[in-house]
Design goal:
The complex is a heterodimer of chains A (382) and B (256). Chain A has twelve helices and seven strands. By secondary structure, chain A is α/β, with parallel strands linked by helices. Chain A folds into two domains: 102 residues, Transcription Regulator spoIIAA, CATH 3.30.750; 234 residues, no CATH class. Classes of the chains: A alpha/beta (382), B alpha/beta (256).
């Protein structure tokens, strides 16, 4: 080593020296992915500046894999702007691998471009608005299509797929009895519990029966039930139809001349429209029972008195209003669920997204519809 | 890694689903650096064998050694580390659909190493090129790719950690003959450049005749024969004769 020698870098993997107007780089050890981070750091510390040629010696290289080849390419690139680069000591196999990595190489984009956050905000807003409008139009189209097919099916009932309908009625209706019952019972009980505390301030505890009768039968019972069904069955409709869509089962169906609306949507729609009023009756009974129990425990109103008073306080119309809403909610839930299911395309991501959308949309639509019903029934004096 | 140890060593393997036995007393060795093709009729458990070797299916009896290591006797950390020694290409690609192709390739890199993003992008680009995809496909999502491209992208991901052993489940199924031939060549090239051992399950007679060093025939829950093509062709077994010397077998590679 002479005094003109100056070492640019000395590490476990790489030494680079300046020697008689020439860079001499020596690669050492195993240039494999296990050591990639350290080798990468050594290369990046390297800041050659003089315009001169370079010799890179690989005779002490133990092993090289493709990551090593990528690193060798980076090492070579850091010298090429300064002058000739000569590589020596590579085996044929390594040479071959290196040429595969270097041949026509340019760094490709690996992730989609990201806009500036403020631009992104505006773009997202525009995209979302466009999508919401488009989605609404498509949903309307779908509703129309389903209506046409339902009328056709109702005019010719033999075309209704009874097996599927009964199966769906079991899944969406019968199997929901447990959860609907439990939640209805609790809601009824809580309404009485909280109502009684407020009414006690006016010494009017007995009016909890009115409150429960009107509030629960008219609004809460059917609404809570619809929200449970939207979460339970709406999501499962989307997931079932969506995964069939992903596996091209829906396409297969279409090519066999079966209309996916007849096969997939109508049985679910009819099943839900038929079972949800029944579920609503059940929810009403259990909810009132829950309230009655709470009234007995908290206020000492015995069930026989509770029932007697309820008959005079709550008219049949209140009950009817609640039940009448159930089929409409059912239609909304089934249609959103099936629509989102048929919108699934491409990937598992899309399935998750559509399932979320289906549940959010159907709950949203149920509540909007309920508001309309409230205004409507009051207007017609029910 | 010692050259003398077989890349894959299966001995006395038994697998079953419930009472249905798939493999019984199955023995098989794969030498380092060779391309072995596993064939067999539908339902003979070719894919199950592959899945059992890579540890996705439990073996009821017998031992499996990959690079001389038995996954059953390893602790969790060793088992995880030895995953770096092999890559798997699933039948339909099994790419993560929420990530771009390049990000898919980077998944194992991220999992095992702490590398600079720039270097990872370089490595991903290099693997994408190695697998013969155009450079602009790195930024695409799997759902935007054709079946053949998805297979290549999946191969790029299988190669991410520079494995010694590559498991391919029907690599050319569903590809047109030109793309399939290109894929065959790609596997050959990669084997030569990277010194890979390739274990492939296939129905494709062209693949078998063109790139496989040895062919293992799976029937009756066992490996009937594990030998170069000529010896397999010569074996006197009805299924093998039907397979290699039947109408389609003669077409592929010719009946010598």
């Amino acid at each position: 080593m002479t005094s003109q020698d100056s070492s640019l870098i000395t590490s476990k993997w790489l030494t680079v020296k300046e020697d008689r107007g020439q860079y001499r780089a020596v690669a050492l050890g195993k240039w494999t992915i296990n050591n990639a981070a350290e080798i990468d750091q050594s290369i990046r510390q390297l800041k050659p500046s003089s315009k001169q040629s370079t010799i890179i010696d690989f005779s002490d290289l133990d092993r090289m894999d493709t990551t090593g080849a990528v690193l060798i390419r980076q090492l070579t690139n850091s010298f090429t702007s300064l002058g000739m680069v000569q590589r020596q000591g590579l085996t044929d196999l390594q040479e071959g691998l290196l040429s595969k990595v270097e041949n026509g190489f340019e760094r490709a984009k690996c992730a989609p471009d990201e806009e500036h956050w403020f631009l992104k905000l505006v773009i997202d807003l525009g995209k979302h608005t466009e999508k919401v409008v488009e989605d609404f139009g498509r949903l309307l189209g779908f509703v129309g299509l389903v209506l046409i097919r339902s009328f056709k099916a109702l005019l010719n009932p033999k075309t209704i797929r009874m097996t599927a309908l009964v199966k769906q009625a079991e899944l969406a209706g019968l199997n929901a009895l447990g959860i609907v019952g439990l939640i209805s019972f609790l809601i009824g009980a809580v309404m009485v519990n909280q109502g009684a505390i407020q009414l006690a301030k006016f010494n009017a505890e007995i009016y909890v029966v009115d409150m429960l009768g009107v509030g629960y039968l008219r609004e809460m019972g059917v609404l809570i039930m619809a929200i449970i069904v939207a979460g339970r069955s709406g999501s499962s409709f989307t997931a079932q139809i969506g995964s069939m869509k992903l596996r091209e089962e829906v396409d297969a169906m279409t090519t066999m001349g079966m209309n996916p609306i007849d096969v997939l949507v109508l049985p679910r729609l009819f099943a839900l429209v038929l079972t949800m009023p029944l579920l609503a009756v059940f929810a009403d009974i259990v909810g009132i029972f829950g309230g009655m129990m709470m009234a007995w425990v908290q206020l000492g109103i015995v069930p026989s008195n509770f029932i007697n008073y309820m008959q005079t306080a709550v008219s049949f119309e209140h009950y009817l209003v609640g039940i009448l809403k159930a089929p409409a909610f059912a239609a909304v839930i089934a249609i959103s669920g099936c629509y989102q299911g048929l919108r699934v395309h491409g990937s598992a991501d899309s399935l998750g997204l559509c399932t979320t959308k289906s549940v959010v949309q159907s709950i949203f639509q149920v509540i909007i519809l309920d508001a309309f019903f409230a205004v409507f029934f009051t207007a017609i004096g029910l | 890694m010692s050259v003398n140890i077989p890349a894959i060593q299966v001995s006395g393997l038994k697998t079953s689903f419930g009472a249905h036995v798939i493999h019984q007393d199955l023995d098989m060795d794969v030498k380092r650096g060779e391309i072995i093709g596993v064939v067999g009729g539908s339902g003979t458990g070719k894919t199950v064998l592959l899945r059992t070797i890579v540890g996705l299916n439990p073996a009821r009896e017998g031992t499996i050694r990959i690079n001389g290591k038995d996954p059953n006797t390893q602790d969790l950390r060793e088992a995880r580390d030895s995953r770096q020694e092999w890559g798997v290409l699933f039948q339909d690609g099994a790419l993560f659909s929420s990530l771009t192709v390049a990000q898919n390739v980077q998944v194992p890199l991220r999992e095992f190493y702490d590398l600079r993003q720039g270097l990872m992008d370089d490595i991903a680009t290099c693997k994408i090129r190695l697998s013969g995809l155009p450079l602009d496909s790195g930024v695409k999502y799997p759902s935007e790719l054709s079946g053949g491209m998805r297979k290549r992208a999946s191969l790029a991901r299988a190669l991410a950690l520079d494995p010694d052993i590559l498991f391919l489940d029907e690599p050319t199924a569903g590809l047109d003959p030109i793309t399939a031939a290109a894929f065959d060549n790609l596997i050959l090239e990669l084997r030569d450049a990277l010194g890979l051992t390739v274990f492939l399950v296939t129905h494709d007679l062209d693949t078998l005749t063109k790139i496989c060093d040895r062919i293992a025939v799976l029937a009756d829950g066992k490996i009937l024969i594990n030998a170069p093509l000529q010896e397999v062709r010569a074996m006197d077994h009805p299924w093998i004769q039907e397979y290699f010397n039947g109408e389609r077998g003669r077409g592929a590679g010719g009946s010598q």
